[in-house]
Protein 1
Amino acid sequence: MTAILTDDTTAPQPPQGAEPSDALTTEPPAPSTADDPTSVSEATPTTKESVEEPQNALTKKFTDAEWNALKEFRTLIPDAFAEAFPDQADARTTPIKLWGITINPTQFDDARVSVVLMKFLRARHLNPTEASSMLVSTLRWRDIFKPEETLEEEFPKEVFGELGYVFGKDKDGRPVTYNLYGANKDLKAVFGDIQRFLRWRVSLMERGIQLIDFETIDQMVQIHDYEGVTLSSRDANSKNAANEATSIFTGHYPEFLYKKFFVNVPGLMTWIFWIFKPLLSSQTVAKMSVVGSGPHTIGKAVLPYIDTHELPERYGGKAKGFQSTV
């Protein structure tokens, strides 16, 4: 089967205990508009003259450049909401919920909102205008696709039951998701209905995000297992599904990847990765590790990030199994 890659642009941070190198700055939220929550003219995003900027462990790592970009980005949020929901007259002042975090376009008094917005900024090289466009696109897509509903949908276990798992955490508390591309060799069953596959794949992503608090962690670790996969393990539907999934994750799930391990990769596929490596950014390559086969080899690469009791035995750990996501 085909890997679903996420094109993140931020290099992974060092394991827990490393010294944070980003400077801390502060930036307070806007005056309250509670007396007239629908007033656009009074819905001014944060200014330095009001109360202290809300902080958490992640916002304290923002750089000066990131804070400056975030301040500008906040001023664009009301217009972004209006553009995303053109049929909603009060969209400029109506809060929305994204990945479990409520974003109020007129008041930024939750540090977790700053973390969510920073993901869009980092994905667009701290360009507030481009980040706003990405946010608009994401909100429109979510309004149509309704990814939160995938969490309640049932997918046939005989098809998807062994393809994906959310299991354990890394040493800093990030959730770990597993994709086992060779677990079901019936390509027609998996990819015959592309939209069903995409909804299952998005559900896997959303389940991982449910374990992210946006206070101490805002990313996840992914392990992509290619055991049993060959170059012939592709058909037209699987290619189309891979392309659509890649478009979804690169366009609407910014900066969620901390580290990705490709394990049990066939030798020829390893060479293909290295051929395409020059086409990838150094930040993206820094997040990826192509690992050989077998518990010892995989464990040697993965255990510095994931505790042995959190890693399944098949990958060199001591955990007995997976927690299925379907």
Protein 2
Amino acid sequence: MEEVTDERTHTLVEQEKDEDDTPMLSAQALEALKEFLAEQNRALAPGDDGGGGAAAGGLEKEVVLLAEDWRLSQFWYDRETAEAVSEEVLYLCDSICCPSVACLACPTLYAYLKKIAPNLPVQLFEYDKRFGQYGSEFTFYDYNQPEELPSSLKTAYQIVVADPPYLSKECLEKVSQTISFLLQPGKSYLLLLTGEVQKDKAAELLGLYPCGFRPQHSSKLGNEFRLFTNYDPGMRLGGWEQDQQML
């Protein structure tokens, strides 16, 4: 769930004293401190490719994100997942005259999309106000208040990608309300990333079916995750899984 527990532990800073009894860091401790500080401060400005850019088969450099806040149930996608979903969104955009994309509680995807296609209109709906650094493309979102959003954004998006922060029935029901608020009537595309346990509920609430592609997170989670769509992706994303619900 976009919204991975970073299981790495940081080496404690060790102090050594020189002949003048002045505190000094060992080389190992200094390296650990640098890693910790970099992880706490790293943040990607939208469209800033860090001197890299898109390359055949993916990005030259991995997109750098803010550190996860476990208290907010933040779990970032791994690179393969973020790139695969981004490529699918961009494929869909090619079939739309003036595409607009809503990323609902999935900041990883937002960052990858803006790195690959800086000019693509993408709006991030997210509870964590640290992402306010994205300026006008950030909208504060609390799933407990599913429709407390600017009226100008109602039915404004042809593509919505949602990743509910929790695997509860209540959370999916409320996020579904937000999706209905944002999604443009008529031909529009919905991608939902959530747990396997929500398969039946996703079909019931939103008419979604699972794809063969299995999303993964930067730190492995115990729950099996799936990608659901309201359209047949053909051979992309591993295709739609045929089951009795679709017969």
